[in-house]
Amino acid sequence: MKSVPEPANFMQVNPDRINLLDYDRKGLAAFFAGLGEKPFRATQLLKWIYQEGVEDFGLMTNLSKSLRAYLNEHCYIAIPGIVVEQIAGDGTRKWALQTSCGNRVETVFIPEEGRGTLCVSSQIGCALACTFCSTARQGFNRNLTTAEIIGQVIAAQQRLGPEKKITNVVMMGMGEPLLNFDNVVAAMNLMMDDFTFGLSKRRVTISTSGVVPAMYRLTQACDVSLAVSLHAVNDELRDQLVPINKKYPLKELMEACRDNAKLAPRRTITFEYVMLDGINDSMEDARGLIKLLKTVPSKLNLIPFNPFPGNAYRCSSSETINRFKTVLNDAGIVTTVRKTRGEDIDAACGQLVGQVEDKSRRHLKLKTVGSERAA
Ligand code: SAH
């Protein structure tokens, strides 16, 4: 584990000032309009920040002197600093980033032949209580700001340098992105903006555990790739594994997926399915999956369960996973097995924990449940 220098300014900024990384292009245009400035100031500013790497308003020479002075006084640009860096044997990198409230979130870079995927966090901790996920154990602190979300991409790209490009972003880090809707959408708009990272909508993926009303909003608001954490094919089991299912059961979830798939003719939804030994990996489950996924243009991504301390689940055997894959593929559903990356540094799916001061007091609730059981 390597410590890197403390971030320069993130902790010391004046809270009354505006971090301009909180705005996407539309937001910036509105901000400048409020100052009586033309909308093209938004693209000028984006170019300075994201293409030139300039954070000092004084150096933004195509802005008028008075505007630069105003920005200096009322605004700032601050990227969350990387405080810990870990590099796995397979080249996966995990960074802990410091947020303004003292908590840390984690971001993971996964290099592959011809591409580099960044796995970005949307919240400090997570309010959902999926039973097989270690982020859930941390409890929940707060939503990340747009600046803290896009800041993960900026910080990662700066750290990687020009040789290693981030080509894909997946909102699959800590948190449930659709419970932080506005900030996540603004950050994804920024990732896809031609004046920033210019990623195509096929290379930006948001993953949700199934917050159905927000899925409909997303379909209207922002065209990115959608992944859905399914994990079970009947409500009884999904209620246990992904408790938000009690609020938005499978029927409603699949309807929201169909609505999203209508966005474009050949669009598919990626369904994620964690392979839990003896829990959701029977041939009956495979047949249930086929039936369910036939109702939506889908791809299936099987995720070998990544264990973490204090959790009783086990990963399905590789034979079971392969049999599952074959049965699904034979039924015409494109199915892949997610390669586990970075497990030696706890960077794999469901292993991100950061440093979270739990405001939901979930640890207390868990303790109570534990002692009741023991009694
Ligand atoms: N909250 C969002 C974003 C998290 S994405 C969501 O649920 O989709 C992280 C993915 O890894 C999700 O599919 C999640 O269910 C899965 N995951 C969580 N814990 C895991 C574990 N221990 N092993 C494998 N996959 C896990």
In words, what does this structure look like?
The chain is α/β, with parallel strands linked by helices. It has 2 domains: 9-76, DNA polymerase, domain 1, CATH 1.10.150; 81-374, Aldolase class I (TIM Barrel). The protein has 12 helices and 15 strands. The protein has helices spanning 25-34, 40-51, 65-74, 134-137, 146-160, 181-192, 212-221, 235-241, 250-261, 283-293, 318-330, 362-374; strands at 2-3, 18-19, 75-76, 82-87, 93-98, 104-112, 115-119, 123-125, 140-143, 168-171, 204-208, 225-229, 269-275, 298-304, 334-337. The protein has an 11-stranded mixed sheet. A two-stranded parallel ribbon has the order 2-3. Helix 6 links the parallel strand 10 and strand 11 (204-208). Helix 7 (212-221) runs parallel beside helix 9 (250-261). It is globular. It binds S-adenosyl-L-homocysteine. The site of S-adenosyl-L-homocysteine (SAH) has 16 residues, from strand 11 and strand 13.
- The tally of beta strands, per DSSP, is 15
CATH hierarchy class name of the largest domain: Alpha Beta
Shape: globular
Rg computed from alpha carbons, rounded to a whole number of angstroms:
21 Å
Q: What's the N-to-C terminus distance? A: 41 Å
Summed up, what is this model?
The chain is of the alpha/beta class. It folds into 2 domains: 9-76, Orthogonal Bundle (DNA polymerase, domain 1), CATH 1.10.150.530; 81-374, TIM Barrel (Alpha-Beta Barrel), CATH 3.20.20.70. It has 12 helices and 15 strands.
